[in-house]
Amino acid sequence: MNKFKIFLFLFGLFSILSAKDLSVYVDQNRFFDEANNTIIEINYQVQYNKLEFIRTESGFEASLMVSYSLEKKDKTIFSDEFSNKIILKNQEIINSQKGFNDKIIFTLSKSGFKIIINFKDINTGNSMSWDYDFEVLPAGSLVSDIEFSTGIQIDSTNYMQKFHRGQYLFLVNPKHIFTNLQKNIFLYYELGNFEQDNEGSCNLEETISIINNEGKNIQEITKNIIEKKEKIASIKKINIDNYESGYYELILKIEDKIADRSTIKKDYFSVKIPKVIEKRMFVDIGSEYKLIKYFLSSSQIKVWKSLSENGKKNFIDRFWFSNDPDPTTEENEFYELIKKRIEYCNEHFSHFCDGWETDRGRIYIRNGKTDEILKCETGLYTKYAQKDYYIWKYRTKLNRTYIFLDMQSTGNYKVIYAGNDENENTISNWKDHLGKDFDEGLLE
Q1: CA 23 to chain centre
Q2: Strand 261-272 to strand 177-179: parallel, antiparallel, or no bridges (unpaired)?
Q3: What pLDDT sits at residue 438?
Q4: Whole-angstrom Cα distance, residue 338 to residue 335?
Q5: Domain 1-137 belongs to what topology?
């Protein structure tokens, strides 16, 4: 089964299996080592929302067990296993389509091996198996296989060292599925086995052709390469901003002008244009921004302030779309969840303003239903008159604690203490309001 057929098969199969089995995207790419043996790099990615996370002292933790074997004629030549411990600090990321990436690397000198990998979510028992009939790169091939990435960045640290390509962190996209919102895709491949002239220089012509599903060549990039190297690592950027939704064939042709020979490498990718449906919780854009601001970072807030009126509308559209846990369905589950939370807040927390705009409303919209609520009264040994206050505790998925005090004795509760929530402020003299006899054990 060639790579394109595998891609189409897996693309359809993942949507069928995801309900019961673990969904893991896998891709394999081959490169030459210095002795012309074949290095095979197997990249895999699992989305966070496909894993089961459990709250621990370190944050939210998932465990992905990976076991793999190398077989020949049904005989196991080598096997091993390891566990990926995935720890996240932010609860919102758990439900996102962002994912965990890793790779397994073999070096082999002969064909005929079968590589089998099993993936298992330790917390749920959900699993998936993947296998690949290994073939070495053809002897004398001028080019390796091609890796695809959504984006690259300069990185001189040791972070994710397996994904470094020179000075860049090249995080491989094993799905080969991109959206036009990303504007560019990046390719990585290596050139070698070419002839050099008397001065040690190669003379290569590189041509990249993109063919759409109608067989039309829609983009072609040609470059002449003259360098004094025995192996050349190449990163290319392909603009897909104007691509239509569909499958595309990528043809890479390398011609050695000195040896008068060439190698053609083919691969495939898909572009999906997301259907952005205008979502509005409120008629006026000011109220909409006040709501989504509960979820924005300081950098995103700065971006908002610099936008035009139309830019702000697009910003809101992107917010609801990017938080949709499954954009392939018409329903935006995140939007519907926040809508229900707003309705609850307006029913229970309204005070001179709608409940979603109050402190309790803001916390409820961000975190959802509390695990425990304590209603208390400030002690006798306080500088202020006795007042009512609530303690909200989140313990199942979050480890956060809040104290809301009725400052003016009017029913308008304000947050004075926020434990383990960097987005909320704790006032410096919160203990003075509660009194010297306040039992801090209530916060545990």
Answers
A1: 14
A2: parallel
A3: 87
A4: 5
A5: Immunoglobulin-like (2.60.40)
Block means of pLDDT (10 residues each) for the chain, length 444 residues?
48 41 94 95 93 87 96 93 90 77 95 96 95 95 97 86 92 89 89 96 97 95 96 95 92 98 96 77 93 91 90 88 73 90 95 92 95 88 82 89 91 93 91 86 90
Three-state SS at 180: helix
Cα separation, 358 vs 342, in Å, equals 11
Which pLDDT does position 19 carry in this prediction? Answer: 37
pLDDT of the residue at 156: 82
**Which tokens hold the place of 135?**
């073939």
Query: How many residues comprise the chain?
Result: 444
Do 138-273 and 1-137 have the same topology in CATH? Answer: yes
The DSSP secondary-structure symbol of 202 reads -
DSSP state of 304: H
Write the CB contacts of 313 (distance below 8 Å, at least 6 apart in sequence). Answer: 285
Is residue 118 a contact partner of residue 104, using CB atoms and an 8 Å limit? no
Domain borders along the chain are 1-137, 138-273, 285-443
Run of H or E residues at 238: strand 232-239
pLDDT of residue 352: 85
DSSP SS3 for 198? coil
Q: Are 156 and 169 in contact (CB under 8 A)?
A: no
- Looking at 57-179, which runs of residues are DSSP E strands? 59-72, 75-88, 99-108, 114-121, 127-133, 147-154, 164-165, 168-172, 177-179
pLDDT tens sequence across 18-55: 335 899 999 999 999 999 999 999 999 998 988 999 88
Question: What dotted CATH number matches 138-273?
Answer: 2.60.40.3880
Query: For strand 59-72 and strand 184-191, is the pairing parallel, antiparallel, or unpaired?
Result: unpaired
Q: Residue 226: what residue type?
A: I
Contacting residues for 144 by C-beta, under 8 A, at least 6 apart: 29, 30, 31, 32, 137, 189, 190, 191, 192, 265
Q: Using DSSP, state whether 337 is helix, strand or coil.
A: helix
pLDDT of residue 13: 41
C-alpha closest to that of 399 among 21, 50, 57: 57
The residues facing 39 across adjacent strands are 31, 107
Cβ proximity of 118 and 66 under 8 Å: yes
Closest CA to 314 of 282, 287, 280: 280
